Amino acid sequence: MARTAFLATDALREQVRSLAAVGVRQEDIATIVRCDAKTLRKHFRDELDRGMAEANAEIVGCLFKAATDGNVAALIFWAKTRCWERKELEHPIPGTDAQSNSQTAIVLPR
Fold first, then answer.
1. How high is the pLDDT of residue 28?
2. Residue 2 pLDDT more than 90?
3. Which of 28, 57, 66, 87 is the most buried (most CB within 10 A)?
4. Residue closest to 23 by CA, chosen among 64, 62, 51
5. Is 21 part of any domain?
6. Does residue 91 lie within any of the structural domains?
7. CB-CB contact of 8 with 43 (8 Å)
8. DSSP string, 53-95
9. Cα separation of 110 and 105, whole Å?
10. Distance (Å, whole) CA 108 – CA 35
11. How many structural domains does the chain have?
């Protein structure tokens, strides 16, 4: 028996975007809009991505505002997550593109 085609309406698109924006899991959004998670990602990829990006932008904006208003915890968090400096690693790890600047000693039993 053939399945009915899923119809993505503008109202569903807005609902998916707003649910994604507040952090609802994709599986739960799929349950709410009554489709499979794979169908959700196929028909609402843009809304899922935009919702999360909008939420992240709003939270980062609030964090930035708190930091610039003198909130010490926000200042420290911002500095630790946004202002770190990349340092070149000295010794490459064999078999990978990654590098390490520390040496590891493996002690085997006698």
1. 98
2. no
3. 66
4. 51
5. yes
6. no
7. yes
8. HHHHHHHHHHHHHHHHTT-HHHHHHHHHHHSPPP---SEEPTT
9. 15
10. 55
11. 1
pLDDT class for 105, splitting at 50, 70, 90?
A: low
Per the domain annotation, does 28 fall within a domain?
yes
What does residue 3 show for φ and ψ, rounded to 5 degrees?
A: -80, 155
Pairing verdict, β 99-100 and 91-92 = antiparallel
For the chain, the farthest-separated pair of C-alpha atoms sits apart, in whole angstroms, at: 70
Name the DSSP class of 109. Answer: P
Query: What pLDDT is attached to residue 3?
Result: 77
- How far apart (Å, rounded) are the C-alpha atoms in residues 72 and 44? 39
Domain with 54 in it: 10-79
Domain membership of residue 107 (yes or no) is: no
> CA-CA distance, 67 to 94, in Å (whole number)?
42
